[in-house]
Amino acid sequence: MQVQLDALTTERLQASLAGQPGAFKLFYDTEDCGCNGVLVVQIVDGPNATDIVYKQAPFSFIVDRQQESLFDQVMRIQAEENYPSYKVTSDSTLYGSNVRIRDKRQQAVQ
């Protein structure tokens, strides 16, 4: 999978890392949503045993093997200019237009 980013998105993702190591995980969260899932982008310390890591300079993106089929080969993440959220799309699908970043790293939880 390839993840395309524009300059504003790269700047905002870098700021969300706050100078600490981390990777971005595309994840369908099905907990307490009563639906097929809501796309979230999580900042995680690193991959789990079931994750696939996609390197995309300057960031690493991760997807769980069981969710890989839900995403297209080329994904785009675009920061909303006047709002702290992102739009995630591909050529064929709008995955979400109000996607937030959730920091799930251990140092963020403490």
TrEMBL record:
Which residues are in the Core domain? 1-102
Cited Pfam families: Fe-S_biosyn (PF01521)
Q: Which InterPro entries match?
A: ATAP_core_dom, HesB-like_dom_sf
Protein name stated in the entry: Uncharacterized protein YqkB
